[in-house]
């Protein structure tokens, strides 16, 4: 490191640091250094000093070492420093002498110039301070705005999560309620049978249905269905009454009984695992499934009604067809076999059937063919 760099690194005058005069010899500088080094060495009072005091002592000891090294080792730097100090001393003397000989007017002008310079410097500092204050205030406002936006965003996210949790809770409650209603509906349907009868044969009232079905179990309610008046929904007190009722009317031609559910009550009650997918389906899936079941049930009812109508018509038309068939058979059975030839004045009973046939052919074809041609045809056949 050059002497100029060392001299520029010194924060204080090395002569002032060591407490020696500018004309001191190397021996005087070394003696002053040793004295100060013993006094300011950090290891002397380490146990009794705080961290701040130890840092100040270390810095002081470092400055003493730099001053000694600069004055004893850097001859060129010391020479320049001496020249600088001498120039400063001469300048101060000249200023002091000028001060003594300067007139009052020049002193006033000098003071005014210094005052203006100080005022301009102060204004510049105030301006810089204002700019710095505005930048700092802007950064602070931006930071506050950012914090406010972040807080608003967190509040919105929390509100959304809270609303989602509440919606999930409401949806779960609705699902539970729907499951409960579905179970109640299925339990009710397990105790119900659907009736359909032929109105041309029977036309029972609600009281008649209750008395007719009392043999299977206690009937709670009878409800008519449809517009034709040939359907009803019977609700028993127990689901065990449905199966004997359906089996009893299974082959009846007057009335039919069917389960309201797709399967008998025993199957639906024993196979509880089959209801699990329905418990997990959504509201839209449940609505579509129920709509499909209703449409299927309506189609089945229409098919059953058409079959019964056709059966009734067939039962009414069967006796007529039988009578007509018997009459026809009787008519056919009275005719002899083989059937007799049509009577003709040229035929006699003594002729054979072939002869009578030839005579009839001649009588029919005589207006179309000649006698010779007719004889050829009859001979060749």
Key words describing this protein structure:
four-stranded antiparallel sheet, 13 helices, alpha+beta, 381 residues, disordered N terminus
Report a brief summary of the structure:
The chain is α+β, with helices and mostly antiparallel strands and 381 residues long. It has helices at residues 3-9, 14-18, 26-40, 51-73, 75-101, 104-189, 206-212, 242-248, 265-270, 276-280, 283-334, 353-365, 371-380; strands at residues 192-197, 219-225, 231-236, 255-259. The radius of gyration is 66 Å and the shape is elongated.
What does this structure look like?
With 381 residues, the protein is of the alpha+beta class. It contains 13 helices and four strands. Strands 2-3-1-4 form a four-stranded antiparallel sheet, with helices on one face. Helix 3 (26-40) packs antiparallel against helix 4. It starts with a helix and ends with a helix. The model is unreliable at 1-8 and 263-276 (pLDDT under 50).
Rg: 66 Å
**Separation of termini?**
154 Å
Secondary-structure element string = HHHHHHEHEEHEHHHHH
Task: Bin the helical content.
Answer: 55-70%
Bin the strand percentage: 5-15%
Strand order of the largest sheet: 2-3-1-4
Mean model confidence by pLDDT: 79
Per DSSP E runs of 2 or more residues, the count of β-strands stands at 4
Label the structural class. alpha+beta
The coarse silhouette is: elongated
Low-pLDDT regions: 1-8, 263-276
């Amino acid at each position: 490191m050059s002497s100029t760099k060392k001299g520029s690194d010194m924060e204080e005058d090395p002569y002032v640091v060591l407490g020696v005069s500018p004309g001191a010899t190397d021996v005087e500088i070394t003696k002053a250094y040793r004295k100060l080094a013993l006094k300011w060495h950090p290891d002397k009072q380490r146990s009794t000093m705080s961290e701040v005091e130890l840092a100040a002592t270390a810095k002081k000891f470092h400055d003493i070492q730099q001053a000694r090294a600069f004055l004893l080792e850097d001859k060129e730097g010391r020479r320049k420093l001496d020249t600088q100090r001498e120039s400063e001393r001469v300048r101060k003397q000249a200023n002091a002498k000028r001060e003594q000989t300067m007139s009052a007017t020049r002193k006033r002008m000098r003071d005014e110039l210094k005052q203006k310079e100080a005022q301009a410097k102060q204004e510049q500092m105030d301006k810089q301070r204002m700019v710095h204050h505005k930048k700092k205030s802007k950064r602070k406002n931006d930071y506050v705005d950012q914090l406010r936006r972040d807080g608003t965003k967190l509040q919105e996210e929390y509100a959304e999560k809270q609303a989602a949790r509440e919606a999930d809770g409401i949806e779960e409650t609705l699902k539970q309620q729907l499951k409960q209603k579905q179970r109640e509906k299925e339990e009710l349907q397990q105790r119900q049978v659907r009736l359909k009868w032929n109105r041309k044969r029977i036309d029972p009232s609600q009281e008649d249905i209750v008395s007719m079905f009392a043999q299977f179990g206690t009937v709670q309610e009878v409800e008519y269905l449809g517009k034709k008046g040939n359907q009803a929904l019977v609700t028993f007190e127990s689901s065990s009454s449905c199966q004997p009722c359906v089996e009893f009317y299974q082959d009846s031609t007057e009335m039919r009984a069917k389960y309201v559910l797709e399967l008998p009550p025993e199957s639906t009650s024993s196979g509880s695992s089959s209801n699990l997918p329905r418990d997990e389906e959504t509201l839209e899936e449940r609505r579509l499934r129920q709509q499909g079941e209703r449409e299927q049930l309506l189609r089945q009812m229409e098919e059953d009604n058409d079959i019964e109508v056709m059966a009734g018509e067939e039962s009414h038309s069967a006796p007529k067809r039988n009578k007509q068939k018997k009459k026809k058979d009787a008519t056919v059975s009275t005719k002899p076999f083989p059937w007799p030839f049509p009577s003709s004045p040229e035929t006699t009973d003594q002729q054979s059937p072939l002869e009578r046939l030839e005579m009839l052919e001649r009588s029919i074809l005589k207006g179309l063919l000649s006698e010779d041609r007719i004889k050829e045809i009859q001979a060749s056949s």
